[in-house]
UniProtKB/TrEMBL annotation:
<feature type="transmembrane region" description="Helical">
    <location>
        <begin position="30"/>
        <end position="49"/>
    </location>
</feature>
<protein>
    <submittedName>
        <fullName>Protein of uncharacterized function (DUF2931)</fullName>
    </submittedName>
</protein>
<dbReference type="Pfam" id="PF11153">
    <property type="entry name" value="DUF2931"/>
</dbReference>
<keyword id="KW-0472">Membrane</keyword>
<dbReference type="InterPro" id="IPR021326">
    <property type="entry name" value="DUF2931"/>
</dbReference>
<keyword id="KW-1133">Transmembrane helix</keyword>
<feature type="transmembrane region" description="Helical">
    <location>
        <begin position="112"/>
        <end position="133"/>
    </location>
</feature>
<feature type="transmembrane region" description="Helical">
    <location>
        <begin position="70"/>
        <end position="92"/>
    </location>
</feature>
<feature type="transmembrane region" description="Helical">
    <location>
        <begin position="140"/>
        <end position="159"/>
    </location>
</feature>
<keyword id="KW-0812">Transmembrane</keyword>
Amino acid sequence: MIFKSIISAILVAILSLIGMLCTQNDNSNLVYAALFCLPYFILIAFLYFRFNTIRRKLNLFDKPNIIFELAYGFVFYIAFCVLLPVLLFVTTLGDDYEHKLYADLGDLILEMFPVILTLSIFLTIFSSIIITWAIRSYKVLLPVIIMYIFFISIVYSIAQYDNEKQETTISGDTIKEGGNDGWRGSMSNPEAYPVQLYKGIFLLSNNEKYEFTFNEGNTVNYRAKWGEDGGNTDKKTMALPKALDLTWYSFAENIFYRVNSPIDYNKLQMLFDTPYAEKRSKGKTQENYNSIIMGFAPGGVLVVWAGSSGHRQIEIGRYPAEKINITKQISYDEKLKYGDLFNQEWRQKVLTDTTIVPYKVQQITKNKPIPYGYWDKLRIRYNWHPTFVVSPEIKIYDADFSFYNAERFVFSDETLLNNINEERGIPENVYIKWYDKNDNRCAVDFEFNEEKIFKQFDVFFNKQKNTNAKIEFNISQKNKTATAMLINGENKLLLLETPIIEYGENY
């Protein structure tokens, strides 16, 4: 019976956490938290299955009553779920850094309560089914698991539908004017060079100061990528920042850096106050800029981007930092504590942990100097614009541009035809998709080689003294190929030729 209880507890805990995650918006920190807390929920599910005294007294175990199980299970699980933040509060009392995250216990429980409630419902339903049906026979267990998976799929579909309903669907080309309805800060760093925020302050446009830290799940970024957000602050509705005061530690350099500088508030405000339309499978939706991504690179380089709920990301500026000394003594004798910057064991763990810096990346960078200046090279811009030449029988759906400077932009509809010359970064990837005359989805994926395309742009723009140019994307449905050609007057340079992808009628 104990073995059955263990198996049942594992199944209920895993499937309930999956079900809860399916109801939430994409949140990597919540996934980390779910994995971290999985043993706790396995334990309480196991206690649920073993706590049968009341059932025996009421003769409800041999003749199960689903109504009783649902009522009893919900009270049991919501009590233990509420206990979790209390335990986090108590167990971090000796750690100033960790305890700060849980110090306001009341607000923490209120903030977590929607997730607690959702998870308690899943735990209750799944446990009740297991205890009343499946635990009595292994023959019943397999169809119950299949039913769980089917049920979770339905929950996920409903959650996605609700999320889509919450987005503002735009009819025609009209975009509703809007404003800042909440934003968050996010951290970014190159994959091989992890950093950790020591102190962060936003000076807001209304002259208030907002001190922040990044979420516990991402004190450092795991498998980071330059320009992509990792650890986040809580999303809040407040004024936008006009200045930053950031202090961080660079593990690979063993250096603290500080930036205390105003940022381009006007550009930030213009982006955040102007919604834009983006295509989805069911039409256009309104998207907004809602994150300020701070990229920390070796050498004290801080690059700030405005990130959005869609597929746009725009650089706000680059801000140099100064090296500073933090005088707190490093403790060599203390036990390893997660996030303790002054513990030498933690510093070493961050640099050697393959979940933070992948093993392959560690081997590539081992015994090699840090490439100072590389992240500034990625920011180089040239004056150009894209044009699109396509076979007459097809219509471009959209063209998704990713740049080496970590900016992103999607051209669609009128912007495919009416875009002007402006300073843009060097494209890393361009994915163009469309539907052919038979309504089958097709696409072309331009993956540009970094070394080659940087050299091509340098030669074309600088050696030939061109002031502006265009990249012509030529798609030939007949020849099943597409080309990207850099053009200025009579000067032409083939950047890449690649085959067309035909997905077929099922896409």
